Amino acid sequence: MPPLAQTQTGGLPVAPDLGLSLAQVRMPRSLTRFDARLIRLIGVSVLLGLAAACVAWLLMKLIGLITNLSFYGTWSTAFSSPAGAVPHLGAWVIGVPVIGGLIAGGMARWGSKAIRGHGIPEAMEQVLLNESRIPTRITLLKPLSSAVVIGTGGPFGAEGPIIATGGALGSLIGQLMKVTASERKVLLAAGAAAGMAAVFAAPVSAVALAVELLLFELRGRSLIPVALACVTATGARDLLMGTTPVFLMDPVSTPGGAALASYVLIGAAIGVLGVWVTRVVYAIEDGFERLPIHWMWWPALGAVVVGLVGWLAPPTLGVGYVNIEDILNGRLAMGALAWLCLMKFISWSICLGSGTSGGTLAPMFTIGGALGAMTGLLLGQALPWLGIDPRIAALVGMAALFASASRALFTTVVFAFETTGQPAGLLPLLGACTAAYLVSAMMMRNTIMTEKIARRGVRVPSEYKADYLERILVGDACQHEVTTLGADRTIGEVRAWIASAAPESQHQGYPILDSAGRVLGVLTRRTFFDAHWPEQARLGDLIQRPAVVVTPAHTLRQAADHMAMENVGRLLVVDPADPTRMLGMLTRGDVISAHSRRLREGARMRRQIDLRAWRRARAWRRRRG
């Protein structure tokens, strides 16, 4: 048997009669970063932003209409607080939220169970498990059920429902169009973020929310459509609802060093409370799960508490945006803050735990703002030299509580800044929310957004980092010395060679070369020992498919994906300028070796600059001098 060749060169990995053209080589497709499909996605996202703004406007009008009908008996869409109706309704105010709870429970029972809760966890679950496909009926049922609950006094914000509705609208459009699952995810995130931007005129934080809670990635093809959808939604919102910030706040001055440090500590303390709040909410939900009655009736039971609390503390009813403004502007005394904080928490946590449809951001801002304001007042009286402004303490308190519970750090910081327009509060916000985030990450595995779906076995990404395999080129990881077999060799010769246990015969696959040195394909050991082939069969006749190839300029991520798509364990590396020339081979083992290198780098700890050695060298030079 003639010797088997060790070679670095070869030919095109297709049969000669197929021609020597790169167009016929089975190679990873280079994903064009900006192409016609992206422009199309951007156009749809812009239209989606307009639609989300209109839906947000309609939802706010619907909430106003139901509120006025339920509490004042008037036909008006003006946004009003239920608190003003409590004096003349008296104890009858308890029944209004119960009616809303019964309607919401019925809509969930006979419409869709997915409308229960605050919406974001359900959207996350569809992104992670169902290729971003949200049932069509959610687009209508979610805003209707939320408007009924909030309009009848439910202690929720409108942000959760409109985020869920915008996401459902984006998913619906993505299901009507011929798009990939990744593109459908972008449309879902664009709709959800545009909805948030339209409610709060907060486009930057809406984009951050999409990245942190829905997209689970940060790349141009996703970011651009979402950002433009948010810009469009905010522009439309300004036309429909005006440009006034959602939470009007009197200007505050830049804090000094001692005050800034105090705000960070306040954020850390409220971060602990954020963990506790999350646990209490899910403990209440677990309690409802143990009730011996159908879940359809749970919202009505939770609404009984809402009504009782609303009778005792009327400001707890409804979205409570006015409460947030009062807290941020220092209009409430210590006793009023404590009462509002306690009652709002009781009402919101029990109502949310019952499975009622509504948002979490506004209630948590009320609770956290009250906690921050109380802390600021106490520290201001006890330690006036710190220079703490209770209004900034309220601002960082409301943001820190949500940052701790959701661990959406940048979303929370930017949102609090955009909705109040206080540049002097940006640095305290960043410090306090980061401290709250740190405390939450150390004390709690899941968040208020992910605990529900984590209990169903859904693993939610919590950290986004650059793909290590994207940083390594195939040319740096592949094997350049490759054992090849001639196409005119027979199966019998190869079997005898493998039986000899020569070092080169222990590989799992071999490129097959023709007489001119061109690669016809790749054969594996399984093929060599297939009893179907007689010993006289030549290797060139056994090739069923052209080889799957990459070039040295491809990344290991592209190569690994190509292996998965083609269901192969090795790729031939060819010269892109001369496709008849083989440069090496890349195997699964090479890809795993790259990962091993990453793990070693992350685990190995060593001092790069040894000061003791430097001092010894310096002393030695002095002695010689």
Automatic annotation (TrEMBL):
Listed SMART domains: CBS (SM00116)
SUPFAM superfamilies: CBS-domain pair, Clc chloride channel
Keywords: CBS domain, Chloride, Chloride channel, Ion channel, Ion transport, Membrane, Transmembrane, Transmembrane helix, Transport
Keyword flag Ion transport: yes
InterPro entries on file: CBS_dom, CBS_dom_sf, Cl-channel_core, ClC, ClC-type_chloride_channel
Family matches, as PROSITE patterns: CBS
Membrane-spanning segments: 38-60, 89-108, 186-211, 260-284, 296-324, 361-380, 392-417, 423-443
Subcellular locations according to the entry: Membrane
Domain CBS: 543-601
Membrane topology of this protein: Multi-pass membrane protein
Keyword Ion transport: yes
Primary location recorded for the protein, binned into one broad class: membrane
Protein name: Chloride channel protein
